[in-house]
Design goal:
It is a single chain. This protein has 460 residues and is α/β, with parallel strands linked by helices. It has 3 domains: 130 residues, Rossmann fold (3-Layer(aba) Sandwich), CATH 3.40.50.1980; 121 residues, Nitrogenase molybdenum iron protein domain (Rossmann fold), CATH 3.40.50.1980; 158 residues, Nitrogenase molybdenum iron protein domain (Rossmann fold), CATH 3.40.50. 45% of the residues lie in helices and 12% in strands. It is built from 18 helices and 13 strands. The strands form 3 sheets. Strands 11-10-9-12-13 form a 5-stranded parallel β-sheet, sandwiched between helices. Strands 2-1-3-4 form a 4-stranded parallel β-sheet, sandwiched between helices. Helix 7 packs parallel to helix 10 and helix 12 packs parallel to helix 18. The radius of gyration is 23 Å and the shape is globular.
């Protein structure tokens, strides 16, 4: 399919080919699903909402519910106020959510709809019942990426709902965690690590038991999971906010610090050894207690596994792409494994990505190609000029992997051609072991495939 990609790299400023990202509203919709009893609402055309729902459904293999303002030609010309007013009235009358999270689209942003004013009018008209809530985030698709949309909606949760109640001494100290754009299994693992350090965790957003619900034979329009509105109100009383991932989570932590004076700790996603160590160091300092032996044992098993597999990973060249927070942490893990990330790319714009990745690579891979706001066409060209042993990225990398005959480890979002990936974490020491196993399996399967008869070994 991609056999005719040219090897000559030419700079392109006005064209993206196979962008390594998608649009803001998808991230905002995913974040909104992490609030209990929330119905995400797409203020734009019906087609936008359908695409965003289907994309999330394909990754999580779970039905994603959302409403839409269903713009037509009239709304495109005269504005979407009437559509949103009618939508809010219908939503609360028919679907009875606790909260509606409105995100904008390209069309409504271009028109310039004033969402807070429209929502205020809906309250005056009685369309929003007492005790129910409407929040919103501006998420134009022509700026940023789905990570930007997630960040904006997480910050909106703080701006609309967080309060600063009187702080009181508690036996179990409260802490906020903004987990970043990760799967429910990752959020569950992050909560486990934090609770083992002795904290009462408020995670927002929290898609655990929302997009990984068990099959019980009964349908619940609003699953049992998600952070509640009351919990979001109490975020101002926490001892700290731990934001995991600068791109997806920092804005919410900054907003909470500004609004309620809750100190923030902005860390990278705890993918791999070093990043997880930094998270545990921060939690240990905040909790004023030592790391439990059970977590030290998990770390020790990871270190042992890294030593056992070192000879198979040392010096292997890797190309990786995906969301910036994922790729930054994964790049560091690969360097810790003495692998060589020679091509590192994200579709999300931001100079901080290139700066941090180059800092991680340092002297280990000084000539690596690193690009923010890149696309998969560029990544493919890089790989043609400097072949790699392994490609790591989402489902869209399978075409490049086939064209260049390179093993692919599916990682990140979206993964729409496999099942089960959302049920097992990639974060923490346990997640790092699983990720290491998958990389090793891919490399050894390729070695077996290409081995001559005399070198086809039975034992590792």
């Amino acid at each position: 399919m991609l056999d005719h990609t040219p090897t000559e790299v030419m700079e392109r400023s006005a064209l993206r080919i196979n962008p390594a990202k998608t649009c803001q509203p998808i991230g905002a919709m995913y974040a909104a699903l992490g609030i209990h009893g929330c119905l995400p609402h797409s203020h734009g055309s019906q087609g936008c909402c359908s695409y965003h729902r289907s994309h999330l459904t394909r990754h999580f293999k779970e039905p994603v519910m959302a409403a839409t303002s269903s713009f037509t030609e009239g709304a495109s010309v005269f504005g979407g106020q009437a559509n949103l007013l009618a939508a809010l009235q219908t939503i609360f009358a028919v679907y009875d959510p606790e909260i509606v999270a409105v995100h904008t689209t390209c069309l409504s942003e271009t028109i310039g709809d004033d969402i807070p004013t429209i929502v205020a009018k809906a309250r005056e008209d009685g369309s929003v019942p007492a005790g129910r809530h409407v929040i919103h985030a501006n998420t134009p698709s022509y700026v940023g990426s789905h990570i930007t949309g997630f960040s904006n909606m997480a910050a909106a949760m703080v701006n609309y709902l967080a309060e600063a109640p009187p702080k009181r001494r508690r036996k179990v100290p409260p802490i906020n965690v903004v987990p970043g754009y990760v799967d429910p299994s990752d959020m569950r693992e992050i909560r486990r690590l934090t609770e083992l350090m002795g904290f009462d965790v408020t995670m927002f957003p929290d898609t655990v038991d929302v997009l990984d619900t068990p099959q019980t034979g009964q349908h619940h329009f609003y699953p049992k999971g998600g952070v509640t509105v009351d919990q979001l109100r109490q975020t101002g009383a926490a001892v700290a906010t731990v934001a995991l991932g600068r791109f997806a989570s920092r804005a919410a932590a900054v907003a909470l610090e500004t609004k309620c004076h809750v100190p923030r700790e902005v860390l990278e996603l705890p993918i791999g050894l070093s990043a997880t160590d930094r998270l545990m160091t921060v939690l240990r300092a905040r909790a004023k207690r030592e790391v439990p032996q059970s977590l030290l044992d998990e770390r020790g098993r990871l270190v042992d596994m890294m030593g056992d597999t070192h000879q198979h990973l040392y010096g292997k060249k890797v190309a990786l792409f995906g969301d910036p927070d994922h790729v930054i942490a994964l790049t560091e893990f690969l360097v810790d494994l003495n692998m060589k990330p020679v091509h590192v790319l994200t579709g999300t714009p931001g100079n901080a990505f290139e700066t941090r990745v180059k800092e991680i690579l340092g002297k280990a891979v000084p000539q690596a190609n690193v690009r923010a706001a890149g696309d998969l066409f560029l990544l493919h060209q890089w790989m043609k000029n400097e072949p790699v042993d392994l490609l790591i990225g989402n489902t869209y990398g399978k075409y490049i992997a086939r064209a260049e005959d390179v093993p692919l480890v599916r990682f990140g979002w979206p993964i729409i051609d496999r099942v089960g990936h959302t049920l097992f974490p990639s974060v923490g020491y346990v997640g790092a072991m699983r990720l290491l196993e998958r990389m090793l399996d891919a490399l050894l399967e390729r070695r077996d495939r290409d081995a001559p008869e005399h070198a086809f070994e039975l034992v590792l």
